Amino acid sequence: VASDYPVIISIEQHCCASQRSRQGEILERVLGDRLLKPPWDEAKSDIDYEALETISPWSARGKFLVKSARGCCERCLRALP
């Protein structure tokens, strides 16, 4: 590894919500605890923005950060089943 700083993976997604969910499952399985994930609110089935803290490159050392849009079209913006 050339650097301890986080690796940023940018994903261009053009798929339905269930396929995005599957991509997340695969990323979790492959990267494990090295995947940087935001706090999750089970009641809302969404990111817990109140518990979200600022992430610095130093605090994310050794992690993988996945960047993508939450949805790019009407089909993608639908909630997960």
Architecture overview:
Helix content is 23%, strand content 15%. With 81 residues, the protein is α+β, with helices and mostly antiparallel strands. The strands form two sheets. A two-stranded parallel sheet has the order 1-4. A two-stranded antiparallel sheet has the order 2-3. A hairpin with a 4-residue loop joins strand 2 (40-41) and strand 3. It is globular and about 35 Å long. The model has no long low-confidence stretch (mean pLDDT 82).
Looking across the biggest beta sheet, what order are the strands in? 1-4
Shape: globular
- For the secondary structure, the number of strands is 4
| Biggest β-sheet description | 2 strands, parallel
Number of helices: 2
Radius of gyration: 14 Å
Structural category is: alpha+beta
For the terminal residues, how far apart are their CA atoms?
Answer: 39 Å
Flag low-confidence runs.
Answer: none
| SS strand fraction | 5-15%
Arithmetic mean of pLDDT:
82
Along the chain, the helix and strand elements come as: EHEEEH
Helix content: 10-25%
Provide key terms for this protein.
two-stranded parallel sheet; single chain; 81 residues; two-stranded antiparallel ribbon; 4 strands; alpha+beta
Describe the protein's topology.
Layout lengths: L6 E4 L6 H15 L8 E2 L4 E2 L16 E4 L6 H4 L4
Parallel strand pairs: 1-4
Antiparallel strand pairs: 2-3
Give a brief description.
This protein has 81 residues and is an alpha+beta fold. 23% of the residues lie in helices and 15% in strands.
